[in-house]
Every structure is written in structure tokens, then in C-alpha cells.
Amino acid sequence: MTSSLLALRNIETYYGPIMAIRGVSMTVREGQIVSLLGANGAGKTTVLKTISGAMEPQKGVVEYQGEAIQARDPDWVARRGIGHVPEGREVFPFLTVEENLRMGAYSRRDGEIDADIEQVYGYFPVLKGFGRQPAQVLSGGQQQMLAIGRALMLRPDLMLLDEPSLGLSPRLVHEIAEIIVRLNQERNVTMLLVEQNAKMALDIGDYGYVMENGRIVMEDTCERLRNAPDIQEFYLGMKDEGVRGRRRWKQRKTWR
Amino acid sequence: MLGKKRVECGAFRRQGHFVEVIQLLISGVSQGCVYGLIALGFVLIYKATEMVNFAQGDIMMIGAFIAFTFINLLGWPFVWGFLAALAVMALLGAVTERLLLRPMIGEPHFAVLMLTIGLGFVLRTVAGERWGSEPKTLDLPWGSAVWRFGEVTVGGDDLAVVGGTLALCALLYLFFRFTRLGIAMQAASQNQLAAFYVGIPVKRVFGLVWALAAVLAACAGVLAPGGVIDPNIGFIGIKAFAAAIVGGLGSLPGAILGGLLVGLSEQFAGRYLWPGFSDVSAYVLLLAMLMIRPEGLFAAMQQKKV
User: Fold this and answer.
1) How far apart are CA B89 and CA B58, in angstroms?
2) Chain A to chain B Cβ contacts (< 8 Å)
3) ipTM
């Protein structure tokens, strides 16, 4: 097993008085795709924001490449090689597609930025035709691709992907999933993938965590998570029908 | 200055109605450029940080006094004195942002508003203490030069402010269109969080936006027609704010256009309406704009483009 690239130790994060993360510990190993599952409001996005510095944890340590990075400014964290693709396609709407990509390389001073833009166009050929148009004319899926491409321009070692499948058609979800796997394999980008689309996340992930109410309630390889009865029932929507077509009280489970 | 022109114009009344209109246009445009330059500062800061800086006019006043210090008191050549004043103002803008505004991130809007109004008071008082409250005249290279084209007179100060504004607009356009920093400023104003995530040092960029706004204000203070400065000239900042709203508080071309409209309406109202209307015309224009097209002139066309 390779060494850990990112480790969270007992993170607690608050929104004002509300405790959103209640002591989360997790490990992301180099080269892995790690999936973080959970329902709405479980705290998945907050975990990513805490990693990238947009939120400051009250307690705990975020360790990246052996260095504590919690409570740093997000632009500093980005320059360390963590590319955060936020939820909901946060592109720069009035900049052109190419300017968006160039901004992704803002912290870089090397001469390979143009080559990298071409490489991003290689992964997302559809973006190339829009190079000189403002990003707001792109469709939702294209904006998602642009957001991923923009994060790639950092040449990240670790990418934080926040619900890349949100609001996309099944075909596009498939396409995005393929790109994630390719980036992971071809460019050795470690991925931390937050998803509500549990099927997609478990299919492409190596290791998975399940969050509920701000806590990690389950962790295992994605292989085993896929076959766990609770996951099948609550996240993959498979369940055995009872004799009378109704489940019995005793089988109801919650991790509260 | 206005009164003098009105008397002059009165003498021409019969044959010179056309000349009079041209004359009012010229003074309206040159005064409007001053409003436009201050309004640019309002818009830049508002778009980047979503704060309204009501000290913008007083920053202009400080810029004019610093130029006065270099040029009149220290006797530097105009160009060097002017550039030195701009450098000092850039520093002052960035320091103001760092010390006063950055700690206010996350505080309610009215608190930031009160802070900038208070800053304006402080600047006015400091200027009064330091430079005295009686009006001073900047030594400008164009002095009181006047050119005559037929019956129309154009002052050197009119040409300077219009030329200076055009040059600054061109520079700003090139800066925002082609430089990495200019595009990063747009990015930070369009989507602050995403700008953070791609590694743009957003806080430093905001400091630079303040520096830029202070530089523009200082240009307005030095180029303002007449060249007369006292600690209270900053009050025209309120008219410039009206100009920024008329232009759409989110558009740089809108700020200049709004400034021109305010400047022109002021001149024409002063000439053709009852006494006192020249001073309220900016606000009448503002109210009319808020009723007819509350989003301002340019808002619909380019909602959040710097």
C-alpha cells in the first residue's frame, strides 16, 4: 500500500453555532480514488471546504504531504497542489473559456501553460470550440468539464471533486466518470470524490467513506461497500420486498 | 467659474446661442470626466469586494493635496510630482484596504459603509490640519491656457482632463483585457470562491483594486478643471456616486458615461433652469434613473464584467 497523501484527524467544523463535522478522520492514499458518500446535509461538502481552507476547523488536523494545512487561506492550499472543483460548476461566467483555464494556472510561472490548455482540450474536446466565448454560454455539463479542466491547470496532486455528476444526464455522468478514472491513471492525480450518485462513486472508487450527520459511519473498499446490505438498501436503492410488500419495523436501520 | 461663463454667454445671447451650447458641452464633459474617474473607483471597489467606499471623494482630495505637496511645496517637475503622488496614493489605497477593510470581511454592509464614511471625515480633518482649509491652486503645466476656436473657448484644463480620462480608459481596457492580474481581478469579482480555489491570492488582489481606485481618484483630483483644491472638494464624491449608479454600479463604461451625464446635466441645468438646480441635477438624474431603469444604463448589457 502506498503512503497517505492526505489525512484528516478528528476534524470538527462549525457553521456558527451549528456543528457540521463531528470528528471526522479519514485517509487518502496516493494514487487512489476515494469516494465520500452521504445524504444531503451529511457534511460532505464541508469536509472538502475544510480541506481546501475555505472553512477553518475548530479542532483537528488536516495533514497534506506530511504538513498541517488547516486554517490556511484557500489560495495557499491550491498552490500546494490541491485542485478543488466546487459544487455547482463555479466557473468565471464572463471570462472566456480559455481565460478560465489560464486562471487555473494563475500560480504557475512556467512556459507550459499553453501546452496544458491543449491537453485539457484533449480530455474535453467539446470545450475547444468554445475557447473564445464567455463561459456562461456553456451548458451545465460543459461548465462542469471546464471546472474540472481549470482545476487540472494547477497540475494538482490531489483533486477534490464536489458532486461532479450533479444535474447531469446519465450519459454525461458516465463521461465525467470516465475522465476521472483516466486522469487518475494517466496523470496519477489522487481523487477525493464527493457524490450523491453512489453507484457511480462506488464503481470508480478504490476506497469509500460513508457520512451521516457529520460523522463517518462506514468505511471500506468500494468493492465491499457495494455489497454491504446497508449500502445497497440506503444508497443504491436495492431492497428485498417483504412478504406483504412492506418492511418490518425491526429491519429499519439508522446510524443516528 | 460657472457664474463667469454665464455672464460671458449672456453677452452673446442673440447670435451666440449655438456657441453657448457648445461651451456648456465642453465644460460639462470636462467636469463629467472628473465624476467619471471617481465613479470608476466606486465601481471597481464595489464589483470586487461588494463594498461601497464613500471615502472615494476624500481619497481624491488627498491625492490632489499630495500632488500639491510634491509640485508646489517641494517644487518637483509636474510629471514627476504627479507620478510620485500616484505611487503614494496606490500605497495608501492598499494600506487602507489592509488595515481597515480586511478586518471587516464578514461584517454587515452598513458597518463597512459607516467605516468608509468615517474614513472620509478623518481624511478631511487630517487634510485641514496638514494643509490648511483655505483653497490652494495646483501649479499645472497648462496653467490657465485657453484656446479659441471662433467664439468657443477651450481651456487647457478641459483638454487635460478629457485627454487624461481617455488615456486612463484605454489603459484600463488593456489592463483588464490582456494582463494576467487584470483578468484575475475580473475572476475574483465574478466568483470569489472559485478564484480562491484556483490559487488567485484574492485578498492581495482586493488590496490592488483599492490601490487602483485610489490612483484613479488622484488622477481626478489633479486633472479636475480649475486646479483649485481645499479639504472639502471630496464632497463631489457623492455626485460621482450618483454617476456610478446611473451607469449601473457594475460597469466601467457605465461609470464614465454616468459621469458625463451628471456633468452635462449640471451645466445645462445651471444655465437654463432656476438657480440652485445645477447642484441638485445629479440627484434628480439619479432619482429619474432609479425610477425608469433601476439597474442603470449598462447593467443589462454586461452584468458583471469589469
Assistant:
1) 12
2) 78
3) 0.87
